[in-house]
Amino acid sequence: MIAQLSGTVIGLGPTSAVIEVGGLGVVALCSPGTTAGLRMGQPATLHTSLIVREDSLTLYGFAGGDERDFFELLLTATGVGPKLAQAALAVLTPDELRTAISTENLVQLTKVPGIGRKGAQRIVIELKDKMNAVGLASVPAAGPASSNPWREQVSQGLQGLGWSAKDADAACADVEHLAADDPPASVAMLMRAALQRLAKS
């Protein structure tokens, strides 16, 4: 098990990062909110989860240990794979997920693309009693976004999660006023707002 990855960021995409560790470039699949907090050429630490399949070894990276722990908890639910678990953590924080599951808030859970009402019910049934297994979460602070590139980063991140370019552009337009009202707004915050708009549509 690889639980943590520390090194220099040598590659960065909307949903992945390459961290150089001891001369090796290790690829980690990340949520758009996590990659938004990374910078090329800068040191970074990711909390990771290694998913082993018959034909692949895939490393998933998270800004905080709470996100990683909840990712692994979600994977224990029937029908929830890594991509869906990552999408859930892109739309809702660990605290929001914990509250939604504990209170059986299916409406909140179905905001996640790929989770329907039946899927939400199954997650609640299977995970409600496990909520104490994951401690109280805190949302990691993300660095401030530049005034220009946020739209491209958010759009690419949404497309990386499976939304169409048209839907991604529409969501960016919906949250553009947030960036105008609060120039230091982080890409992670704008991404979350865009995802929530898409989930409601």
Automatic annotation (TrEMBL):
Family matches, as SMART domains: HhH1 (SM00278)
Pfam families, sorted: HHH_5 (PF14520), RuvA_C (PF07499), RuvA_N (PF01330)
Region (Domain III): 146-201
Keyword Lyase: no
Entry's localization field: Cytoplasm
Keyword list, A-Z: ATP-binding, Cytoplasm, DNA damage, DNA recombination, DNA repair, DNA-binding, Helicase, Hydrolase, Nucleotide-binding
Residue intervals of the Helix-hairpin-helix DNA-binding motif class domain: 72-91, 107-126
Single annotated GO MF: hydrolase activity
InterPro entries: DNA_helicase_Holl-junc_RuvA_I, Hlx-hairpin-Hlx_DNA-bd_motif, NA-bd_OB-fold, RuvA, RuvA_2-like, RuvA_C, RuvA_C_sf
Purpose of the protein: The RuvA-RuvB-RuvC complex processes Holliday junction (HJ) DNA during genetic recombination and DNA repair, while the RuvA-RuvB complex plays an important role in the rescue of blocked DNA replication forks via replication fork reversal (RFR). RuvA specifically binds to HJ cruciform DNA, conferring on it an open structure. The RuvB hexamer acts as an ATP-dependent pump, pulling dsDNA into and through the RuvAB complex. HJ branch migration allows RuvC to scan DNA until it finds its consensus sequence, where it cleaves and resolves the cruciform DNA.
HAMAP family: DNA_HJ_migration_RuvA
Entry similarity comment: Belongs to the RuvA family.
Domain free text: Has three domains with a flexible linker between the domains II and III and assumes an 'L' shape. Domain III is highly mobile and contacts RuvB.
Assembly and interaction partners: Homotetramer. Forms an RuvA(8)-RuvB(12)-Holliday junction (HJ) complex. HJ DNA is sandwiched between 2 RuvA tetramers; dsDNA enters through RuvA and exits via RuvB. An RuvB hexamer assembles on each DNA strand where it exits the tetramer. Each RuvB hexamer is contacted by two RuvA subunits (via domain III) on 2 adjacent RuvB subunits; this complex drives branch migration. In the full resolvosome a probable DNA-RuvA(4)-RuvB(12)-RuvC(2) complex forms which resolves the HJ.
Protein name: Holliday junction branch migration complex subunit RuvA
Native source species: Microlunatus panaciterrae
Name of the encoding gene: ruvA
